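With this grant's support, we have settled on a layout for protein records. An illustrative entry appears below exactly as we store it:
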Amino acid sequence: NNTVFRAWLELERMSYGTLEDEDLDVGEFCAEDDDPSSTQNFYENDDALDYPPIEEGSPTERTVATGEVTSANFPHPFACLFHLVFKITALVCYLLLWIFVDSFVIVFIVTVILLSLDFWVVKNVSGRLLVGLRWWNEIQPDGESKWVFESLEDKTSVTRGESLVFWIPLFVAPLLWGLLALGAIFQPGYLCIVAVALAFCISNLIGYVRAAKNARSRVKSWATKQAVNVAVEQTLKQNDASV
């Protein structure tokens, strides 16, 4: 079916970030409810983050084709760095700081501060820059908590390298802290640190997984609407031709 094939092509183009439509701006995010009034430009006042679409023969295209690690594959190196550095330093402090400092209070404070910094960076910076996703909770007037998701409409600035840097540590960190929890079962103080770490890691993991699913469902919904519109247009043209 030609209609379904065209809709599928549009879906593939949006999913893999190869859109070439001139009416889509890099950095334009669409909210979960698809309300145009909620559309925000997360990159405003930061022209350095406005990346053009991938052109044929460009360094980015060659990087994707060959797997070569270049600056084109990692356009946000500092975001990648801080996405990893606080996770690693928090684990190192938890495991080794007691060797140099004979005080549980200091170990607790330093580790929790690093975990808090990691949570904030992942939730507000690296997710937005590396994979074009964002999430948060809103408390409604009736006291209920509402999840809100936003995703980058044009994925041309999201590279495979940065996507891997984002998602792999996001899944690995809770597993590592879970293993450390087994070793801290009989140490209530250290178990509290692990509990804080798991709360932060799992919150970000659930938020971004749900945000990614929401973005995919919105793309599929858009493709379905496009297929219906194309089918209606073709039907109308056939009716006009028969008349």
